[in-house]
Amino acid sequence: MIPFYPALAVSSHSVSPGVTYLFFALLVCMVLCLALEEKIHAKKSVIVGLFAIIALFLGSWFHLLPFEDVGSLLIGGHKISLPVYIPGVDWEVIAIILGSSLFVDVTSKSGLFTWVAVKLTKLSKGDPLRLLILYGVMTVVFSAVLNNVTAMIIVGSLTGVSLKKLNQSEKLLGFLLVEGLLTNIGGLLTLISSVPNIIVGKTAGIEFVDFFIKAAPYVVVATIVTLWLGSKLFKIQSLKTEEERISAQKLISGFDETEGIESPGFFRFGALMTFVFIGTVAMTSQLPVIKDLGLGFVALAFAGVMLVRYKAVADRFYKAIDWDLLFFFVCLFAVINVMEHALVLNLIGEWLMPILGLGDSAGPAALLVASAAASSVTDNIPLAAMLAKILGAIPEMASNPDSPYWWAVIFGANLGGNITPIGSASTLVSVTIIHKYGLNLSFAGFVKVALPYAVIQLALGVVYLLVTG
After folding, report:
1. Is the separation of the CB atoms in 125 and 167 below 8 Å?
2. What pLDDT, on the 0 to 100 scale, is given for residue 73?
3. Tens of pLDDT along 362-402?
4. What global pTM score does this model have?
5. Which end of the chain, N or C, is more open, meaning fewer C-beta atoms within 10 Å of its C-beta?
6. Which of 133, 168, 134, 159 is nearest to 251 (CA)?
7. CA 28, CA 154: separation in Å to the nearest integer?
8. Is 149 left (phi over 0), alpha (psi -120 to 50) or beta?
9. What kind and span of H or E run contains 465?
């Protein structure tokens, strides 16, 4: 029997080591199939959906799933029957993706994003490097005050518009990839920037201001380094000759930020709603009533308000929704939930436990790298929850919010998303946008291109923990 911590137990049944390793092998096979998606000519949703079917069947076969807990719920005196795989899906994430996608899509019809793109493009004077810096900083800020997925959707839309207007579409892959990586760096900035931050921060007792003060220096340095590396690897350079600058200036002078504005009234309404949306998302945890409904409700509510403008043709926006992405997440959550019941995450936790005995220097560094590697192939939310429970069960950790081990988990869970496209929702959205523009980037291709960034970011994180820990 594999030992595990009572606080981490998610199954009321005993699980033999052989069963746990069987499900671990299933998880590895799923990741490999995703890596070979181009070779097997299958969409992500189909691949993960097939593994979800297998995992649920085997979970039921081995009596791992909690049918007695979800088979019949009493809500308000009424019996509600739910399939066992429904509670395992993080519907908040699904709602955020669906709502923010609809909101951005409808708001873009007001001409707001085109207006912002042209303004930023004019500020850059047509210089690609300056535009990369401006959009990179905007990505980090949006990721810090919004959620990573929403930030990527908004910035990705702006990038496509700007580069097309500058006749620089060949640089779109580099821009979108760098922005996708920066969403996970921006996600480190505040306590509410990402779900792992919230989980670990609350368990450790880290205050909002303390979190920001601790994370901000790293975010600034990592952003600068990522932008510098992106400009080098993708050869995004400043305009060198006077002729190039004059040509770019001519293109800029021909830009009209009001070109895409069909209705000034709807433009102003879209701008107002965008600011209110950002403010509401940033303050969701502080707002009465709204904090109980969550970010998913906020995203869907604002999408609903914006759809009123196109109430007669709203179905055309539904058709544009990336259903492959949504079904991928639903199936992925189902798989991960079964893995929790099969104690696969506990197994990973057991492998990480020896790290805690390495001391306050090597221990946090090793935990950061290990948690990053683990979160790159599985959902970082349950991983963060599991690691938070492990650390919270240790008295010395529970009473010390400044322990570098807490920050190792926070940095690892966030930065691990930059290793593979399934490591975080925002990098997956980034790849989806890349494919939307007809650019080729496979799973293996993403890992190959993103790995240098991830290695440097993780190295910076290790050094930062050693210096500040």
Report:
1. no
2. 59
3. 888 888 998 898 888 766 776 777 788 777 777 777 668 88
4. 0.70
5. N
6. 168
7. 33
8. alpha
9. helix 443-468
